[in-house]
Amino acid sequence: MAHIIVVGNEKGGSGKSTTCMHVATALARLGQRVGAVDLDLRQRSFARYLENRRAYLDRAGLDLPTPEYRDLPEGEVQDARLTQAVEELDARCEFIVIDCPGSHTRLSQLAHTMADTLITPLNDSFVDFDLLARVDPTTGRVKGPSIYAEMVWGARQMRAEAGLKPIDWIVVRNRLGTQAMHNKKKVGAALEELSRRIGFRVLPGFSERVIFRELFPRGLTLLDLKDTGIDQLSLSNIAARQELRDLMAGLRLPGPMGGF
């Protein structure tokens, strides 16, 4: 069976689609067969990223490893549509990457119950931290889990009742500041405290970089630059590629995960 990676966060602008694209393409570059599904039926950022990639590679005459995208089949029953798409990809893929919308939907809730690995990108601020937990405004102490964490807890219970293996939940801190700012330390401490209480791992993700905005229109990732003849070996881009390598190592995904 394919290993299902769900990228979810009920707030927009956290870097879900960028994370999806880079993780999926990194796996494809490692020789894995990767399926892709976008559950944000309105914005379709992950789907558009992959469409841009196919169009760019066709224009440039290039053949680079690319995830296999699958639209949800037609139908009125949302559960059946997602289940069918996953079953079709499962027949020929080692991994399936599912991008969830920045809001609570039935499809997103169902996808979380399917997750072997759940990645929650989080902007490094207490505005986004509020998605996971309620914080005492005076002491800064975590008071308890919030709406999204409770939804993940429900998904974990459903998997346990079905006899499935537990979800490996990873919270990825995106847009980390380059300086050891006071707020950054406070967010980090709160995440570590909450991780012990509700069971997730914390990994550093991607810093805020211009390169990510430039890659999307061509459907490229940090790992594609050398193969396209537009390699930009700035210190920022080298650091960004190392962030991706560190993230892939930290995910601890099954199968051969050599260098790329």
From TrEMBL:
Coiled-coil ranges (or none): none
CDD domains from the UniProt entry: ParAB_family (cd02042)
Pfam family, one: MipZ
Full protein name: Division plane positioning ATPase MipZ
Organism annotation: Tabrizicola soli
